[in-house]
Amino acid sequence: MESQKLKDVALIATSAFTVYTIAKKIYQSIQKKQIEKKKLIDLIGNTHLIYLESLSKLTGCEIYAKCEFMNPGGSIKDRTCKQIILDAIKDGELSKEKKFIYEGTSGSTGISLTQLGNSMGFQTKIFLPDDLAQEKYLILETMKAILVKVKPCSIVDSQHYCKLAENQAEVDGAFFSDQFENLSNFKVHYNSTAKEIYTQTHGQIDIFVSGSGTGGTIAGVSRYIKSKKPQVKVILADPQGSSLRNKVNYGICYTGEEAEGHRLKHPFDTITEGIGLNRQTDNFNEAQIDKAFLVTDEEALEMAHFLIQNEGLFLGSSSAVNACAAVKSARLYGKGKTIVTIFCDSGMRYLSKFYNPQYLESKGRQYTPKDYSKEFNLDFVL
C-alpha cells in the first residue's frame, strides 16, 4: 500500500515536471525576442562570394568574386578604415578629444572613413585629386567631410594629395590615417578577407587575382592564403601606366610613362580609378605575388559591359580590371582551376567618367557597348 502511494506521487511529480517543461518552452517561444543591436561597424565584412557563370563557362575554370561592394560604405575600403580607426583608438591617436582624421585618397577610402567616422563621432578632412568622378565629391560633401581638392601630380611632388594630408595633419595635430603605409591595412585583409575566402572555397582555391592601389588587399590575402596552401598562385591585375607589374615580373618598379620630366608633371594615364601605382608601399611590400598582368582601359571597358549584360553586375573600373586578369590567369594556368578575385565597388561612383561616353571620347576612348548576347566570347581580353 505504501509502495503504491510512493509510485503515485512519483508519477504525479513526473507529470508535473513534464507539464512545467512544456509550458516553459511555450512561454519562451511567445516572448518577444531580443533584436540584435548591430552598429554600422559591425556590418563590415563577411561579404558573399559570387560564382561568375559566364566567365567560368568561357574559360573552363570556376571563377568567383568577393562582393566587396556589399559593405555598408559600398567598397572594400570599409574593411581598411575599420581596422585603421580601431587601431588608432587603441593606440590613443583617436579619442573624444582627438577627433580629426586626415587622409589622401582617390575617393573610396575617404567615403568609408567619413561614414565610419560619422558613426563614431569623428570628423574627416579628405585630400584628393580634382579629376575624380563627380559622384565621389558629391557623396563626401553630403556626408559633411571637409574636402581639399588638388591638381593631380606624382608622389614625388610636394603638392601630392597624400603628402599634403600628412603635412597638414602634423600641423593641425590630427590623425593621419595613411592608408598606403599603415599596416593596419595589410592586417585586416590577412585576418578577415583572406580567411573568409579560404573558408568560402573550403580551401579549394588555386588562383587569387587582385589589383593593387595601396597594396593592402593583395598583401593580406596572398600572405594568409599561401600560409595555408603554398601552391596557390597570386596574380596582380595592373592597369596601363602603373609600374607595379614590372616590379613583379622584372624586379624594376618603372614604366615608360615615367620618362624624365613626365612623371613630375603627370600621373599615369588611365580612365580607371583607385588601382595601380608607380611606387611600392609598405603594404605592397608584404605581398607574395607570382605574376602580374597588364589590363588596358579598352579591356576593362569591354569587361565592365560584358558583366552587366551577362551577370547583371554593375561594377567599378577596378573590378573590371580584376575580372580581365582572372580570365588571363585561366588561360595561362589551364582549365579546371578555381579562381577568386575581388569586386571592389559598384559602378554607381563612376557614371560621370568610366560609364560616360562623352568623358571617354574626351580621353580618346571611342567605345560603344556591344550586344554580348550575340557576341558571347572573351576575345576582347588580349
From TrEMBL:
UniProt-listed SUPFAM superfamilies: Tryptophan synthase beta subunit-like PLP-dependent enzymes
GO BP terms in the entry: cysteine biosynthetic process
Keyword Cytoplasm tagged: no
Coiled-coil ranges (or none): none
One GO molecular-function entry: transferase activity
Phosphoprotein among keywords: no
Needed cofactors: pyridoxal 5'-phosphate
Keywords: Amino-acid biosynthesis, Cysteine biosynthesis, Pyridoxal phosphate, Transferase
Annotated Tryptophan synthase beta chain-like PALP domain residues: 42-345
PANTHER family: CYSTATHIONINE BETA-SYNTHASE
Family under the similarity heading: Belongs to the cysteine synthase/cystathionine beta-synthase family.
Name of the protein in question: Pyridoxal-phosphate-dependent protein
Source species of the chain: Tetrahymena thermophila (strain SB210)
